[in-house]
Structures are given as C-alpha cells and as structure tokens.
C-alpha cells in the first residue's frame, strides 16, 4: 500500500512538473513573442507628446530643406501644394484642390489652392490660411514655410477634437506674385459662404522678426485679434499688436499686403499672425529685425542663417504661434 501511495505521489509529481514546465515554456515563448512584436513595431509619438512647435518645425524643414525655393507656377510650388494636400489627407481631412490661372507680363500661369475641411459644431466656419509659395531668394523658411508649418500643426492637434466652428484650412498658391491664390478663393465664394464665414486667420512670416504680433480688423470686427491677445496673456505668450506709430497703420491693424486682404475687402473679419518689428525703419513692419534688417525676400531666409543669427528664435516663434492658433480655434465661440 505504501508502495502504491509512493508510486502515485511520484506519478502525480511528475505530471505536475511536466505541466509546470510546459506552462513556463509557453510563458517564456509568449514573452519572447511579445518582445519580438514590440521590437518590430515602429515607435510612434502622438501629437500630445510633442512640444508645441515641434510638428511645425518638421514641416518647415521639409518645405525649405527638401523642396527649397517654391516659386509661383514652378514645379517645386506644385510639389509643395501636393505635400500640403498629403499632410491633410494623412490626418483624415476631406481635401479639395482649387486650380486657377493668373496673368503676369501678358503670360498665363497655373497654380492652385489646397483646401481641407474640418466639420465643427456649427455650419459657420473659420478660415485658416497660409501661402506655400516663396520668392527666388533664400529658401522661404520665414516666408512662408513657417506659416504652413503652424497651420499643419494646428490641423494635427485638432483633428480629433470637436471645435465650436467648422474650420477651413487653406494652403494658398501664388501669393508672392500678387496674392493670386487668396484673391481667387474669395472670388469663388458665394454670398452664403461669405455670410457663414466668421473670420479668417492669416499666417505669414512667423519666425525671424524681433517681435510677434497679431493684427486684426478695425472697429467691431477686431474680436478675433482681441481674443487672441487675451489668450496670449493667459498662456504667457509674448505676442503683441502693432503700436500704431505710423498713422497709415492704426494701432492693432496692418496693411493689405498678405492673404488676409481679399477677405478683409469682402467684409470678413480677420486676424493676421506675423513676426517683424513695427518700431524700426519706416514703422510699417517691413524691417523685421533691428540687428540684421529683413530676412524675407532675401538670401538670408534660410534655417541656417536665421538659427545662426538668432539661436532658438525659430523654435520659440513656432511654439508660441502654434499654441495661440490651436487655443484660438477652440475658444473663438466665446467671442461671439
């Protein structure tokens, strides 16, 4: 009887050992599979994990470094437009290409606008625009890869967030030859579309200037600029308004030399983000820096030169404007 008990105990023990060994092997194999799977899965960083401005910087680097000059109606302007379209589509936005033809020196040229739509809680919309073409000097970092980068960062950060208004993001073509893209877009708007447009936010030349500004419509239509200034204070952003030292450009306003102009002429309130210095030169905002003059439309409009002259300025400007634009698009309902 003892032998049978001993045999039974030994048999049960062997089975248990075998079972434990099998489970251990399966556990180890599963662990190895998990490690292998984890190692073969690309590491993705969500937009929440990136610091403000970092997304914008990647777009600035691509547009200026990989594409370079993006002269209106050129092959590289076409590539820049395609890049903007691809980014919107990768974010899941419904996109549209709006081609147009313009005349210059009695010749016809082709360009296009790239439009992305984000549905909001209201049928009314906010337009956010930045031109993706550049001049033939420099690499178009400040003017205007910076504006495109900030627009694309806001589009990425807001893609899964419900916004008070619908948002129409627009990459404008051919700005540098007479605001052709924005003029064409406004000319194609119906009376109903104009009526349903709460405002337009223009992003142009954001990284090289001494100071960061938000300009806006005069009078009662200044609500977008005013809200932006409140948000800048709330988020400790060093963004201000044109002090109005030049009587031609009253305090808080600007000239009609960028893509906001056509919207302003149509009676649509606007805000305009810009980095320059309205307190030097002719007091018209054209001279961007006290120490090195202007960067836009010069051979110095490159990341290498701007970073050399003003270390950290590009990152700081992109971070500030990206934060402000994102927060503004979420808060605009409060201004109505």
What would you say this structure looks like, in words?
With 336 residues, the chain is α/β, with parallel strands linked by helices. It has a single domain (54-335), classed as Aminopeptidase (3-Layer(aba) Sandwich), CATH 3.40.630. The chain has helices at residues 2-40, 54-67, 75-90, 141-158, 180-187, 191-196, 223-234, 261-265, 303-309, 313-331; strands at residues 94-104, 107-118, 122-131, 165-172, 197-203, 211-216, 239-240, 270-276. The chain has an eight-stranded mixed beta sheet, sandwiched between helices. Strand 1 (94-104) and strand 2 form a beta hairpin. The N and C termini lie far apart (93 Å). Mean pLDDT is 89; it is low at 1-44.
SSE layout and pairing:
Layout: H1 2-40, H2 54-67, H3 75-90, E1 94-104, E2 107-118, E3 122-131, H4 141-158, E4 165-172, H5 180-187, H6 191-196, E5 197-203, E6 211-216, H7 223-234, E7 239-240, H8 261-265, E8 270-276, H9 303-309, H10 313-331
Question: Features of this protein?
Answer:
single chain, 336 residues, Aminopeptidase, eight-stranded mixed sheet, 8 strands, globular, disordered N terminus
The largest β sheet comes out as:
8 strands, mixed
Got a strand count?
Answer: 8
On the 0 to 100 scale, the average pLDDT is: 89
Low-pLDDT residue intervals, each spanning 5 or more residues? 1-44
Strand content: 15-25%
**Chain oligomer state:** single chain
* CATH architecture label: 3-Layer(aba) Sandwich
Order of helices and strands: HHHEEEHEHHEEHEHEHH
Order of strands across the widest beta sheet?
1-2-4-3-5-8-6-7
| CATH homologous superfamily identity | Zn peptidases
